[in-house]
Design goal:
Strand content: 15-25%
Number of domains: 2
Number of strands: 7
Radius of gyration: 36 Å
Strand order of the largest sheet: 5-6-7
Number of helices: 7
CATH topology of the largest domain: Enolase-like, domain 1
Helix content: 40-55%
Largest sheet: 3 strands, antiparallel
Order of helices and strands: HEEEEHEEEHHHHH
Length: 227
Amino acid sequence: MSEVKKTGLELMRSPFPANQVSTMCRSTKKDNQKGKCPKCGGWHGLPAIQLDYVGHAALTDRLLASDPNWTWEPAGIDANGLPIIDKDGGMWIKLTVCGVTRWGYGDAQGKTGGDAMKERIGDALRNAAMRFGAALDLWHKGDLHVDEEPPEAPPAPAGMSESTLADFLASIDSASTLATLKTAYTKAKTAAEALNDRDAYKTLTTATNARKAALEAAAQPAYAEQA
């Protein structure tokens, strides 16, 4: 069965083929010292990283394929009928595809003149088209959609076995002094907490309190005789 060809807004979200993806270098900082780049051969700030992007022609082709009647317009017009450029040198636009309008913003990276305006428009179109899903995989640093099941949660502890609980209770009941009782209880409590067994913890605590009361009561006559 042949694959159904995507159209309209669904086509806007389709990944771009490799032949329509270009590569450019971008300096890691604005104030990096300029030099000849060993990666692209251009002259710009170094060090730089290489980024994949979709050019103006490839994006225009995608827009036309999605909607031959797509349009864009600046968000504002000045007194001369020209697009308004903000104080940062950028321009807001409204891109309409298949009757849906979304905003975008573009700048010219500090450039001036006619080429700056063309770059500003191209950047704004790419930014607005991204709101429709165009080239999202290139804008995102990682994987947007991973086709794998989430890892299974580790199994919960089974709890303390009856024989282990009985052994701990026996050590608590056989404690002859408060010091040995404390040692027995600490060991038992640690095991119960490690297994996240609240029932065992309560049982051990109750037994310890009872044994502590018995030891303290047994010591009272001796204190009375000494007095």
